[in-house]
Structures are given as structure tokens and as C-alpha cells.
Prior knowledge:
Elements lengths: L14 H4 L4 E9 L23 E11 L2 E6 L2 H11 L3 E3 L2 E4 L1 E2 L2 E6 L4 E12 L2
Antiparallel strand pairs: 1-2, 1-8, 2-3, 3-5, 4-5, 6-7, 7-8
Amino acid sequence: xxxNPTGMRRFRKSRSHRDGMEFDLYLLHGRxxxxxxxxxxxxxxxxxWGFAGPRLKHCIGVHGTYGELHIFFKDVxxxxxxxxxxGWENWDDTSLVLPMKEDCVVMFNAARNRKEYFGDWGLKxxx
Length: 127
């Protein structure tokens, strides 16, 4: 067992990961304001579900603790790629904290230099 930077115990790799099971984490129903309806990528309100966010590869688990969700990745490289795509903070070397505001997942889109909010997120078994 390993410890994260705060000294708390870190998850061991699950049996499903040792067997090679991985998931993609997807973000949907994007908007630029967590209290508004869906927007297009330019920020205009639409009568639609909004834009899609990045699809994060190599997820192996999710853990919730006291209102905070941690997303676990297969290795440091996968966590680093996900952090670059979302701006999420590290929990430890292979996991990130999934930030929420209102009822939306928050990410920072570095390419557009802005925060984006997503009403839906989920995991799908990777192809």
C-alpha cells in the first residue's frame, strides 16, 4: 500500500485493471456558465444539450470521499494527459480530483483559456 501526499492510504490497483479493463471518462452537455442552459463552443445559448468535452482515456476507478471524487488512471502518463486536458488537480501521481460547481463538473480548457462546465459525465468500457 502506498500513501498519497496527504498521508492517506492510496488504492491498490484493482483486479479489473490487472486484467486490463480500462474505461474512458466522457463529459457532455457543456456550458460556459454553470447556472445557464447549454451553450455552443462559442458560448451562445442553444436549445440543445451544449458541447462535448474531452474523452479521458485509461481510467481504472472512481472513489468518492466526503463529497470529493477522485478519478484513478492506469499510470502517471495517463493522469498527466488527463490533467493537461482538464486542468484538474492531482490527488496523487495517478489520480485527479474531479471538481464540481453547482451540479456541473468543472474543467479548464487551456486552448481556449476558459473554464467550462458539464452537466453530464460518465464512464464507458474502453474499446
